[in-house]
């Protein structure tokens, strides 16, 4: 029967354990083991902080084991659940014929890929590309909705699998890979520490029980829970044995390594422990006293672990199995039982006295902290996650071989966003032009370069060991850069003169209500408005001409009064109002303001009630019925006279009585002296004789007939 030599490493916060086993069929026989502790605190909370220091310890273990087992180049490892993210997902396939072991394996990998997709599309982590899948557990198999232990040899229509996949940050895995590489080793397989431990202590035949396995290490306490025949969840508490060591160190002022030795001796039978603090003072303290001093810290650790258990399990478990070096912390089982409110007998420290599939376990490995390394070795010979090594843009890339790896998988693992390989199109621009929306598109992006082993590649091409990938980002398109003249077809300019000066009139353009020119740049969501000056007022405003009115101050009837006179404007010599139209070659003159007349100042425009109209000797004649009295600076004036600035004006209005014929004669400037001597004067009002004092009214007809006496006698 073919045998296989397997190498496993448990890289812990406090120590590193190396195991070499020989696999024959389904059995694993232990050949050699080596344990070494870190010389410094090179790891904290399961994370490598000093890669060279950890690499030296790994290299020393490798060198020691090679003396017994020969060259070792590949190794299986496990990661602590620091920043652990778990995804529960399922996958199914249509069944054609009998299901084989390959079909079952394909279904498992499909579920893992579904978990990766779920992680990438969810918001469980900030950047899904920075997470590795480090292990998974099968929750259940089903065939046509019937639950089975395995699908192999079964026949039906639809096969389904449900798994729990675990993901860790790439930083955790990358630092581990760097340490292995520096020690001359290649990571052949990776799993999660609680997955490894549970495969040793809780076989499938025990998983119908609601059991909790807690691997209490130095930096982390990893949790795995079984129920209903499957593993239902994994979790991690970022505190473990080092918290107790820190408490001892703080209490007695000890070097961390000295405090670690004291902690390990607490579970011994020694009644008193001797040690020297950092000041060089010797102490001899009762063991019970030290245990009592750290009991609050132990209780805090137990509470943290219990909180994680209840979060994952949602109820009190049936029993708790403690493994790992930190499980030997005095009072921890009792404190955890109290925190979970279960009998203390239901919390036990377990040792790998015997394990299914493992043979020849030496006495040095029959300790609680040997459970995880034995589990790693056991899983190294099973169908766990291994790697495909490729090169991406000149950098080595280790891909978890989930089966049917493609170029897209490599880009995702390398942190390259597939969407960015093709340059993004430039951002478009939306404008509003005189209230109407206009969209201007950016230029399209240019495609990037994607090659596999020197040839153009597609995302779905399969990958093999040693492949070389080149992925270069495409060029983004450009955003539109436009000016006013690029989006407006403006009318031609007008040439005209104002006060003898030539002017060129362009359309009035504004961007967001601010003045603009044809060359002004535009930005997204700008509001562009334009119009051509269509009348005199708009033209003068566009050119900045201000036809300011002249201000006057008068003293009228004892009261000061202000008055304004706008300058008259002519177009081509004709008076023009503000709304007068303009045209090319117009000659516009803004005249100086003339002094106002008294009539304009006092509002004495002639009105119908100021006079009556009648006919005098068949000619139109008006007779005033209201008379005005005006003086300017003490001198008599008429309404038509100008009113100089600051003038002292008096003004009164006299209402006339009903006009008589004598008033008509006065208004008509009839001079009686012009009547020849020896003449007869006859006055006819509306054809009837009348006296000088007869009242006249509007529309009357008045005639004055003059006849010489000799003419009268001749008749």
**Which range does the strand content fall in?**
35-45%
Structural class: alpha+beta
Q: How many helices does DSSP assign? A: 15
Pick out the low-confidence regions. Answer: none
What is the total domain count? 4
Radius of gyration: 55 Å
Q: Sheet with the most strands? A: 11 strands, mixed
Mean pLDDT, rounded to whole units?
Answer: 84
User: What's the CATH architecture of the largest domain?
Assistant: 2-Layer Sandwich
Tell me the overall shape: elongated
Give the C-level CATH assignment of the largest domain. Answer: Alpha Beta
Amount of helix: 10-25%
Distance between the termini: 176 Å
Total strands: the figure is: 44
CATH superfamily of the largest domain: ATPase, nucleotide binding domain
User: Which oligomerization state do the chains in this entry correspond to?
Assistant: single chain
What does this structure look like?
Keywords: Cell cycle, Cell division. This is Cell division protein FtsA. With 715 residues, the chain is an alpha+beta fold. It is 23% helix and 35% strand. The chain folds into four domains: 85-383, Nucleotidyltransferase, domain 5 (2-Layer Sandwich), CATH 3.30.420.40; 390-472, Ubiquitin-like (UB roll), CATH 3.10.20; 482-594, no CATH class; 607-632 and 648-714, Ubiquitin-like (UB roll), CATH 3.10.20. Strands 1, 2, 3, 6, 11, 19, 20, 21, 24, 25 and 26 form an eleven-stranded mixed β-sheet that branches. Strand 15 (272-276) and strand 16 (282-286) form a beta hairpin. Helix 1 crosses helix 3, helix 5 packs antiparallel against helix 7 (287-313) and helix 7 (287-313) runs parallel beside helix 8 (332-340). The chain is elongated, with a radius of gyration of 55 Å.
């Amino acid at each position: 029967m073919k045998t296989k030599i397997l190498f496993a490493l448990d890289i812990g916060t406090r120590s590193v354990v190396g195991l070499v086993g020989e696999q024959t069929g389904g059995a694993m026989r232990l050949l050699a083991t080596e344990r070494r502790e870190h010389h410094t605190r090179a790891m904290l909370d399961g994370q490598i902080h000093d890669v060279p220091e950890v690499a030296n310890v790994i290299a020393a273990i490798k060198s020691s084991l090679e003396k017994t087992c020969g060259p070792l180049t590949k190794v299986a490892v496990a990661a602590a659940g620091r920043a652990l993210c778990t995804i529960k997902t399922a996958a199914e396939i249509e069944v054609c014929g009998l299901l084989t072991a390959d079909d079952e394996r394909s279904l498992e990998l499909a579920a893992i890929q579904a978990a990766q997709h779920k992680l990438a599309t969810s918001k469980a982590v900030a950047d899904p590309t920075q997470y590795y899948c480090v292990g998974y557990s099968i929750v259940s198999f089903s065939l046509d909705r019937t639950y089975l232990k395995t699908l192999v040899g079964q026949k039906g229509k639809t096969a389904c699998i449900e798994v729990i996949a675990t993901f860790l940050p790439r930083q955790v895995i990358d630092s581990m890979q760097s340490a292995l590489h520096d020690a001359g080793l290649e990571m052949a397989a990776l799993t999660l520490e609680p997955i490894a431990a549970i495969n040793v202590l809780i076989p499938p035949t025990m998983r119908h029980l609601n059991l909790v396995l807690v691997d209490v290490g130095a930096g982390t306490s990893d949790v795995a829970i079984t129920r209903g025949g499957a593993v239902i969840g994994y979790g991690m508490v970022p505190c473990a044995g080092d918290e107790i060591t820190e408490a001892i160190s703080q209490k007695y002022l000890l070097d961390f390594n000295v405090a670690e030795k004291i902690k390990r001796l607490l579970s011994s039978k020694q009644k008193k422990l001797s040690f020297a603090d950092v000041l060089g003072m010797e102490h001899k303290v009762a063991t019970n006293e030290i245990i009592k001093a750290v009991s609050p810290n132990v209780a805090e650790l137990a509470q943290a672990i219990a909180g994680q258990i209840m979060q994952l399990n949602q109820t009190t478990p049936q029993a708790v199995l403690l493994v790992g070096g930190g499980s030997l912390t005095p009072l921890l089982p009792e404190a955890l039982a109290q925190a979970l409110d279960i009998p203390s007998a239901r919390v036990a420290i377990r040792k790998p006295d015997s394990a299914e599939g493992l043979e020849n376990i030496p006495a040095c490995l029959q300790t609680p902290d040997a459970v995880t390394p034995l589990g790693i070795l056991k899983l190294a010979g099973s169908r766990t996650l291994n790697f495909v090594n490729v090169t991406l843009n000149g950098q080595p890339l280790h891909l978890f071989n989930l089966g049917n790896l493609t170029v897209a998988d490599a880009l995702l693992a390398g942190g390259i966003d597939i969407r960015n390989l093709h340059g993004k199109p430039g951002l478009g621009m939306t404008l509003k032009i005189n209230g109407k929306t206009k969209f201007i598109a950016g230029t399209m992006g240019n495609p990037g370069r994607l090659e596999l082993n020197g040839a153009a590649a597609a995302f779905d091409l399969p990958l093999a060991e040693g492949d070389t990938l080149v992925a270069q980002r495409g060029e983004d398109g450009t955003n539109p850069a436009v000016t006013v003249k690029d989006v407006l077809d403006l009318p031609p300019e007008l040439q005209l003169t104002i006060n003898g000066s030539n002017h060129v009139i362009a359309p009035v353009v504004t961007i967001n209500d601010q003045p603009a020119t044809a060359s002004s740049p535009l930005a997204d969501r700008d509001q562009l408005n334009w119009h051509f000056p269509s009348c005199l007022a708009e033209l003068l405003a566009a050119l900045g001409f201000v036809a300011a009115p002249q201000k006057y101050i008068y003293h009228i009837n004892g009261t000061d009064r202000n008055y304004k006179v706008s300058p008259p404007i002519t177009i081509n010599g004709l008076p023009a109002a503000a709304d007068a139209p303009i045209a090319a070659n117009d000659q516009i003159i803004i005249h100086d303001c003339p002094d106002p007349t008294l009539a304009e100042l006092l509002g004495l425009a002639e009105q119908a009630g100021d006079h009556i109209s009648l006919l005098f000797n068949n000619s139109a004649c008006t007779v005033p019925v209201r008379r005005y009295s005006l003086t300017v600076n003490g001198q008599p004036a008429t309404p038509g006279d100008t009113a100089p600035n600051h003038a002292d004006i008096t003004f009164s209005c006299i209402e006339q009585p009903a006009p008589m014929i004598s008033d008509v004669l006065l208004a008509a400037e009839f001079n009686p002296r012009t009547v020849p001597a020896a003449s007869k004067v006859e006055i006819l009002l509306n054809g009837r004789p009348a006296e000088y004092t007869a009242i006249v009214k509007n529309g009357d007809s008045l005639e004055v007939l003059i006849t010489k006496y000799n003419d009268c006698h001749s008749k």
